[in-house]
Amino acid sequence: MGTEPRYLGQYQLLERIASGGMGEVWKAMDTHLQRIVAIKFLLSNWRHSAGFVARFQGEARLIASLRHPNIINIHNFAIEEKPGEPPLFYMVMDYVEGQTLAQYLAVTSKLGRFPPHEDILYLFSALAQAIDYAHNRGMIHRDIKPANILLDQRDTRQRALGVPIITDFGIARRQGISGGTVVGSVVGTPLYVAPEQALGSYDEKRSDLYSLGIILYEMLTGIPPFRGDSMMNVLMQHVNQAPTPPELLNEAISEATSAVILKSIAKKPEDRFGSASEMVIALAESFNLPAPEPLIQNLRTMPAHAAISLSYVPLTPVDRPLIAETPPATLATPAIDRQSRGASPVAHTDEIHALPTLAHMAPALIQAASSPTIAVPSRPARSFLSHPRWLTAIAGLIIVLLIVGIAARLWPPSPSSAPPIPHGSVQFSYSLGSSHYDQLQITMQNVPDPPGGKVYYAWIDAPANESYIPHWRLEARQKQIRSGILSDNKVTNLVTPHALFLITLEDASNSHILVPAIDMSSRLYYAQLSPSGGATFEIKACPQNVNSSPCI
């Protein structure tokens, strides 16, 4: 927005208050009504696509039709067009004084200072009412996350934290309507995205409930359940990995509350709660607090298919599957404040930054793991280590591991363990005046023609690329790829630590691909990049063993 005028019609632009891959938000003065408003500008390349104007107008009307105290009010939307310039799309909405829920969590839960149960119930009750209201009108948000929840400080009569208000319905999707949305195939943010969204399905309202469950997990433990050093790593965890039971991260969490959280983030939508109201009523019961009356009324007035009985939610101590995995070493759980919650402290290290917005996902063939089964025990559970059969099993396991370790050292490597044969190279270079590798050239041979309806894409997926993955469409001719000099004006340094160069197969009909295919069969070639590795890197074929593939 740096080149835009300080006035936009009747609005005087005062200051930019937020920016991201999709656009910018400005604080502005409505000179006609003499009130402060917020204006969101859409800065995406989708502005140039055919049919975008009609989709923007249609979706903006739907969003503006939502009238709820916990959903941001949209006052106006417009398109400004100037000769020789791309159209400027913007929405005018309420300006909310206050921090985001992400900022609130950063100084509370992430530091081990967990909010009292009464505040948590107040917050999630308001969010549940807003989400169910939108769902009952056919709208799915698809990007519920702490950064999209404002805590309005204009009214702190009920709770000091403020009134929660859900924002950014700009990537919402109307249920049952096909043909794309304003933002094409963007479906959420990886830390909070549901497994079915990661696999390319966006029309499930319980995806919003999954995201709400992830926020609940984070608020009560201080960390989201799935973290990693790349977008794809986090997505794979959402699809395949069971979360660590919350009570193992914060001993102040009861098993009943843990059961509610785990049900909220079940892998399969049908295993989650039927509505946000149902989820928060179960949460209130697990806190031993009265269920908020508005949520009870919501359940009574919901359609029969949505008002599912709560009788299957276990609110007594439950057995837990053993989770062998631990969080990454650099992402340990936060310290727990003994004074505020009476829980034992856990070491705290650097927190992860929010990962970029997730967009196109190719059809995936990943085998989705079911959520841990939660069974009500018939008698109090005891430690598995106290049972002699477990001690025997563990002793046997140790012996097996010793034998396997010895065999691995003595057994000669098989021919299949030989390093993969290079298929070509990717060479990086500086453009004129640059001090970083901001250009690349791809040279490959023995590359088969892509199947019908598919096309090759090159990607550089790196932790440094937080909001955008640079990518290029490639042409294969006579079993060769010779790309010529490629660059991307959104990224000034293409070779950063832990960067992964990928070549994938993508749908040729999708011109708005922003994330590489998650399906391992579509990830064909790779090169591991390093700033200390020189300017040229060998391109090798991706192994199809998902457990050891460097292409993940």
What's the quick description here?
With 552 residues, this protein is α+β, with helices and mostly antiparallel strands.
List its salient traits.
single chain; 552 residues; alpha+beta; Phosphorylase Kinase, domain 1; Transferase(Phosphotransferase), domain 1; 8-stranded antiparallel sheet; 6-stranded antiparallel sheet; 20% strand; transmembrane; ATP binding; Prot_kinase_dom; transmembrane helix; non-specific serine/threonine protein kinase
What does this structure look like?
The longest helix is centred in the C-terminal third of the chain and has 23 residues, at 388-410. This protein folds into four domains: 7-94, 2-Layer Sandwich (Phosphorylase Kinase, domain 1); 101-178 and 203-226 and 243-341, Transferase(Phosphotransferase) domain 1 (Transferase(Phosphotransferase), domain 1); 384-411; 421-541, Immunoglobulin-like. The protein is globular, with a radius of gyration of 25 Å. By secondary structure, the protein is of the alpha+beta class. The strands form four sheets. An eight-stranded antiparallel beta sheet has the order 14-13-16-17-18-11-12-15, with no helix packed on it. The protein has a six-stranded antiparallel beta sheet with strand order 1-2-3-4-6-5, with helices on one face. It has a two-stranded antiparallel sheet with strand order 7-10. Helices cover 23% and strands 20% of the residues. It has helices at residues 52-64, 101-106, 117-136, 195-198, 206-221, 231-240, 255-264, 276-286, 293-301, 338-341, 388-410, and strands spanning 7-8, 11-19, 23-30, 35-42, 74-80, 88-94, 139-140, 149-152, 163-166, 173-174, 422-429, 439-445, 454-461, 471-474, 480-487, 500-507, 523-528, 536-541. It contains eleven helices and 18 strands. Pfam families: Pkinase. Its EC number is 2.7.11.1. This is non-specific serine/threonine protein kinase.
